Amino acid sequence: MNRRLSLTLVAALAAAGTLTTVPAHAATGTACKIQPYGLIGARWQQLGGADGKLGCPTTGERDIHQNGVGWAGRRQTFERGQLAWSPKLGGNFVVAAWSAGGNAYVDWHRTAKEFDTFLVRYTSAADPHGVQKDTAGGFRGRYIVRARTNGGYRWNIKGCDTNLIGPSSCQKHWSVSVTG
């Protein structure tokens, strides 16, 4: 079925009351063979869905175990990056990574609490030993670097609070890594 006929059929069903909502992929004109769901799916939609920053999924969600032990969350790969859910950092904590326009991006949001700062750690072919930066706090954030390689950047995030008396305190765990 061609795209115009498909969109016309969806519109006709919606007008007739048979279809109560138009699927996101039908409204945008791009259909994905795999449909994200849950928190990863919701974040994917917020980032533009199939026509957005990540494109269509190329895999389903997969369980992630960090350091070979212990379940850490779930990750899904897309045409232009990845999304990962890291419940140890808060029940709704999802991190996205992608590359576009000569930049590499990491975007995270909805931590369980507000943090004073976030630690952003990344590695790439241009930075094989890794780079770690502090960035603004809150419940969410985004960090951008000028891409110096086309091999992708691997990202991890951790929230921290400054302590006026004594050392700062950071979350025990890093996020599930994402590459984009």
Describe the structure using short key phrases:
alpha+beta; 6-stranded antiparallel β-sheet; 3 helices; 11 strands; globular; disordered N terminus
The radius of gyration computed from the alpha-carbon positions, rounded to a whole number of angstroms, is: 19 Å
Helix content: 10-25%
Spatial order of the strands forming the largest sheet? 1-2-3-4-5-8
Beta-strand segment tally: 11
**What's the tally of helices?**
3
Mean pLDDT, nearest integer? 84
Name the beta content range: 35-45%
> What class would the helix/strand composition place it in?
alpha+beta
Order of helices and strands: HHHEEEEEEEEEEE
Q: What does this protein structure show overall?
A:
There is one protein chain. The protein has three helices and eleven strands. The chain has helices at residues 3-15, 24-28, 38-46, and strands spanning 62-65, 71-78, 81-85, 94-100, 103-109, 115-124, 131-138, 140-146, 153-161, 169-170, 178-179. It is globular and about 55 Å long. It starts with a helix and ends with a strand. The model is unreliable at 1-28 (pLDDT under 50).
Topology:
Elements: H1 3-15, H2 24-28, H3 38-46, E1 62-65, E2 71-78, E3 81-85, E4 94-100, E5 103-109, E6 115-124, E7 131-138, E8 140-146, E9 153-161, E10 169-170, E11 178-179
Antiparallel strand pairs: 1-2, 2-3, 3-4, 4-5, 5-8, 6-7, 6-9, 9-10, 9-11
